[in-house]
Amino acid sequence: MRQHFLNYLFTERNVSRNLTSVEYGLEYNGRKKRVDILVFDSQGKPSIMVECKAPHIPLNEKVVFQIATYNAQFLLPRLCITNGMQHLWFDLVDGEYKLQSFNS
């Protein structure tokens, strides 16, 4: 699933392969966690976080909470959750994350 979404980012969203990190490690409450995909801007700052789930996993509140938890130390301008069937994009607008697009 992750490889499929990376290909989508590279071909459909024109994201450079050199500006992506897969399974980016971080620590939250003393526990090691991994962000599935982290995209960096041209200055090397993280800009998009992606959480990938298996196709049978629904994109529900639990998945949103997971990416929000991982994002707590970054506060990135853009988040995405995907199960390969659906992609939900959230943008930081006026201090709040708002669902911006839904692609199926």
Uncertain stretches of 5 or more adjacent residues: none
CATH class: Alpha Beta
N-to-C series of helices and strands: HEEEHEEE
> Which term fits the overall shape?
globular
Main sheet record = 6 strands, mixed
For this structure, the CATH topology is tt1808, chain A
Report the structural category.
alpha+beta
Cα(first) to Cα(last) distance is 14 Å
Number of helices: 2
Query: Which strand-content bin applies to the residues?
Result: 35-45%
Radius of gyration of CA atoms, rounded to a whole number: 13 Å
Find the count of extended strands (DSSP E, 2+ residues): 6
CATH architecture: Alpha-Beta Complex
- Helix amount: 10-25%
In total, the number of domains comes to 1
Strand order of the largest sheet: 1-2-3-4-5-6
Mean pLDDT: 92
Provide a descriptive summary of the structure in words.
The protein is of the alpha+beta class and 104 residues long. It has a single domain, classed as Alpha-Beta Complex (tt1808, chain A), CATH 3.90.1570. The chain contains 2 helices and 6 strands; from the N terminus they run H-E-E-E-H-E-E-E. It starts with a helix and ends with a strand. The model has no long low-confidence stretch (mean pLDDT 92).
